[in-house]
Structures are given as C-alpha cells and as structure tokens.
Amino acid sequence: MDWNYWDVKKIRIKVEDNGKIVGGLAGHTMAGVFYIAELIVDHNERGAGIGKALMDKAVKYARKNNIHLLYLETGEDWRAVKFYEKLGFKKVTLLEKFFSKKNFWLMIKYL
Question: For every one of its 111 residues, what pLDDT tens digit does the chain have, with 9 covering 90 and above?
C-alpha cells in the first residue's frame, strides 16, 4: 500500500492583477479527492471571471494529479450554487444547520 496516497496535501491557488491578489482558492487533496474549502474573490472584481479562472486552475491541477472527485459546500441560498452548477458540480445533499446553523449544499464534480 502506498501510504503517501493518504497524505493530506494543502492546495492554494491565487489570481493576481498587477501584483494584487484579487482571488484565491484553498483546500486539500487526499486519496484522489480534492476538497475546496474556500473560493474568495475581491468584491470589486466579482463578475470578471476570476472565480471561474480559479476553478479552472483547480480542475487542471486535479487532472494533472489523478484526482477523480472535487467537492465543496456552499450556502443553500447563495448565488454560488448556480455558479458551481454551471461548472459541472451537482448537489448531493442538503446539510441542515451547518456553518453558523445555516443550510449548505454539499456539491461534487467527478472528473
């Protein structure tokens, strides 16, 4: 058995504009799965394709590193749900009273 397969590897991806970080993605991989913990885009830069660029970089990394599944949670009533669906993520289950006792969707994407 390859024990390194089960090691958690932290992942950080950023997008810069003229040396200023305008968006970032953080998560970790383990055993062929990529958990996306955070996707943050500067409020002034939203709608400019930065979130999609970050997710594209995450998928590219995943494919290069034999990741077969990406997953994340997002607020039930957040506009991010439609954003992730456009990128191929599917709602799996509703996590009731999750972060801050709010409902969140668990979403996955198989590669």
Answer: 677 888 999 999 999 999 999 999 999 999 999 999 999 999 999 999 999 999 999 999 999 999 999 999 999 999 999 999 999 999 999 999 999 999 999 999 999
Q: Please give the structure tokens belonging to residue 41.
A: 């885009």
Residue 96 near residue 64, CB atoms below 8 Å: no
Long-range residue pairs from 4-12, CB within 8 A, at least 24 positions apart, any chain: 5/31, 5/32, 6/30, 6/31, 11/58, 11/61
CATH superfamily of 3-110: Gcn5-related N-acetyltransferase (GNAT) (3.40.630.30)
pTM of the model: 0.91
Reduce the DSSP state of residue 67 to 3 states and report it. Answer: coil
d(CA 87, CA 7): 27
C-alpha 101/C-alpha 105 separation (Å) is 13
- Per-domain residue ranges of the chain: 3-110
